[in-house]
Each structure stands twice: as structure tokens, then as C-alpha cells.
Amino acid sequence: MAETKPIKTYVPVQVIFDKNGNMKPSALAWEDGTVFEIDRVLAVKQAAAMKAGGQGDRYTIRIRGKETYLFFEHSASGSTLGRWFVERREEG
Questions:
Q1: Going by C-beta distance under 8 Å and a sequence separation of 6 or more, which residues neighbour residue 57?
Q2: 71: exposed, middle or buried (C-beta count within 10 Å: 0-12, 13-18, 19+)?
Q3: Is the pLDDT of residue 77 over 80?
């Protein structure tokens, strides 16, 4: 039986900024180009991605009725604000 390990996968995310500058992800695109609308953002907090590593803001989101995490990793320098990633499993 093949063993799986969680890996950090960077994904493009469509974001809406409110008048106070808060980010609200509204959709994400998977590696194959499939776009998933985010039904709802349930919670946001600073947290580590315990399975795949990394740290930033953890968004608890609902896509197609299923709850999952989406992480925003802040950039340390330059003009890049940061990157979005998910934890997914890879056979190894």
C-alpha cells in the first residue's frame, strides 16, 4: 500500500478586499486549472500548516459543502504581499 505525505501546494486565489482592506478569498484554481468557488469563509486566524509546514493566516473555508483550510503565507520582503497554499496529499 502506497504511503501518502502532505505537501504544500501553491494555488492562484481570487480575493475581494473590503473597504477596511481585509482579504476575503472568493475562488481558487487547482493545479489542473479547475476553479472552485468558495461558498463561505468560516474563520480566519494565524496558524501553522501542521501537516505540510509553513505559517501564516489560516482560512477555514467551505467549498461544495466541505470544510477545508486555505493558507496565506506572508512575504518577508519585496513588492509581493504573499502567496496562497493548500495542503494536499502526495503518494511517496
A1: 44, 45, 46, 47, 71, 72, 74
A2: buried
A3: no
